[in-house]
Amino acid sequence: MRLIDTARIRARYEDELRRQILPFWMEHGIDREHGGYLTGLARDGTLIESDKPVWLQGRFAWMLSTLYSKLEAKDEWLDLAKSGVEFLERHCFDDDGRMFFRVDRAGRPLIKRRRYLFSECFAIMAMAAYARAAGELRYLERARGLFELVERYRSTPGLLEPKFNQQTRPSRGFALPMILTAVVQELRDCDPQGADAWTAKIDGYIEELRGFMKTEHEAVLEQMSADGQLEDHFEGRLLNPGHAIEAAWFILREALYRGRDEELVRMGTTILDWMWAWGWDREYGGIIYYRDVLGRPPTEYWHDMKFWWPQCEAIIASLYAYLLTGEERYARMFSSCDEWAHAHFPDREHGEWFGYLHRDGSISSDLKGNVFKGPFHIPRMYLECVTLARKLPQPIAPG
């Protein structure tokens, strides 16, 4: 049985982060004229789209602040994080307190998605993390206030525009309680005096997520009816394995925070087990994008592609599962996804990862960034695994 030394995992992941991922974004993704970050990049880093997705401004500012706090207190990272949070403050809020989804390079508004609160969620994370890293507490207050706005829009009937007509098809989505779990974990880390209240919020989100778990299908739905039932429509049957696996490691992280809480470990590993079974491609390897819970043809044309981020979530989740259970099958799961991802996604010539592969692992598009792909899932994965490897026993057993 071949063994993996966890010290080597840590060293390899930190090396990839420092040498393969971050240099690409530091060289090509920083807007030193207008502030904030540029993500519309070709394979070699050439700028091919200057518009700025607001959620990626928040995501990269969060990432830089977290690198400063958890990896190395580099002044450059903190300065660049400040550029991001200042860009958010100056340009990305509308008069009603909501945020835009996309602005142009100079920060002028282009798109506002009234149905979604994701720009706000990642701005909260960015401001909280920057407050912790820089000691600028006004950003924590700003994050708290924005969180209250998100909660108000989410909880006030009719205030947040629904995806579906709620009279015709009342429904609930998985995405918002999932991301709010991570948002409030960040707020709690940056505001330990309020830990009890933040933990109570997390309890509520996790209970919401539990409702999307359907034992009869051994699956986690992306959407369900308002009363918790499977909806026999394209959206209601949709499974997104990577998304559910991301939620799994948020829950496992919460279990670790609570002293290895057994119920949360059970919930997180159950989600991982179910959605790995749905998502892992037994023929080619890697996590595919979509499945239909009733086994019908998925409607999205990219349903069997391999995107960058589901691989990242599976790598993190399996490492958390191994740390919390000691079960070797999670070490094998980690090795399978780690090896497949690193055999197909990294661009060893220009740095960073390709984002979009066909099912067999061949490249569909060689761009490095757009409205959705930016410096977030990949560096977060490397940093999270470096942190986890410090806590892992040695060695772990792959397949």
In short:
The protein contains 13 helices and 14 strands. The chain is mainly alpha-helical and 399 residues long.
Could you explain how this protein is built, in words?
The chain has helices at 6-28, 54-70, 75-91, 118-134, 137-155, 175-190, 195-210, 234-237, 241-257, 262-279, 308-325, 328-344, 377-389, and strands at residues 40-41, 47-49, 52-53, 102-103, 109-111, 171-173, 213-214, 219-220, 223-225, 238-239, 291-292, 306-307, 356-357, 363-365. The protein has 399 residues and is mainly alpha-helical. The protein has a three-stranded antiparallel beta sheet. The chain is globular, with a radius of gyration of 20 Å. It has 13 helices and 14 strands. The model has no long low-confidence stretch (mean pLDDT 95). The protein has one domain (6-389): Glycosyltransferase. Helix 2 runs parallel beside helix 4 and helix 11 runs antiparallel to helix 12.
User: Can you tell me the CATH architecture?
Assistant: Alpha/alpha barrel
Q: Which strand order do you get reading across the main beta sheet?
A: 3-4-5
CATH class: Mainly Alpha
User: Helical percent range?
Assistant: 40-55%
Please tell me the overall pLDDT. Answer: 95
Strand content: 5-15%
What's the story with the biggest beta sheet?
Answer: 3 strands, antiparallel
Number of strands: 14
CA distance, first residue to last residue: 8 Å
Low-confidence stretches: none
